[in-house]
Design brief:
This protein has helices at residues 7-28, 39-45, 49-69, 73-91, 95-113. The protein is mainly α. The chain has one domain. α1 (7-28) runs antiparallel to α3 (49-69) and α1 (7-28) packs across α5. The two termini are 28 Å apart.
Length: 129
Amino acid sequence: MNHKKYAPVVLRLGMCAVVAWFGASQLSNPNMWFGVVPAWALEFSHLSAQTIIRLNGWFEIIAALALGVGVFTRWVALALSAHLFVIALGFGLSAVGVRDFGLTFGLLAVAMFGADCLCFEDVAPPLAV
């Protein structure tokens, strides 16, 4: 039995789970996340840290749901990849930053692959070149 066609599904759902966990964690316990809100985000947005955390949490939950069901897969994964790249840059070459860089590239791989065999969006066969 050939399982290769399910590899992108496993990656997409794994990334969905990670993003959903972080989003839910931010919504359920925003106080835990105050220390990681960068100063530039507070200055740029003129929002409170709690508002930024809640908005980020909702963004991540909605994006994780879209990624999980396979709707706008490529665009959602690309947006999450860019989002996580900015977060990883903020942590730099720390354990958290390196982990986030790895997750960034996992999301980038999902974006590059696009819709897989279990997505709800139309999966057109690749164009023959």
